[in-house]
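Hi there, hope your week has been kind to you so far. No rush at all, and the record is pasted right below.
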Amino acid sequence: IAYLRSRKNQELLIRAMAKLHNSALTCVCIGADREGYRAQLEKLASDLGVRVTFTGEVSKAEVNRLVNQSKIGVLCARRDAVPRAILEYMAADVPVLVNAELLAGARYVGPQAGLVKPPAEFHLGLAELLENRRNYSPRAFFLEKYSKEKTLDTFQKLLQNAGVNI
């Protein structure tokens, strides 16, 4: 699943999928095409023989349904200030592959939640997650690190360390 914006860098995923020669894979791009990006992705996917489905805008409930049906989550972007999709995938118990060039991404993904790979090795990460996805436990990692209670505890400690009485 990918939000249809050029900054999301779906070309990386399409090129990685092509290297695997796995015709069962499909990338799903969600969102309105406000940049003319869809035509570029369609051509690239066609040239490389990769299946990409474009849904257009859908409801949050439909996004959640699609995420929950996914085998793996993928974040190809290089810049994303708050890559909450990583946490959304983990909460849905979907292992995630993250571009190592994503500035804020790698710190969110632990070894039981997914992989972080540089673009040159992205196809290898994709293959590993597909082959071993049942060996990952992203929801358990999410609950251990990012549950509401853990987040509140971390925030409370930050405030206390800053000298704020709570």
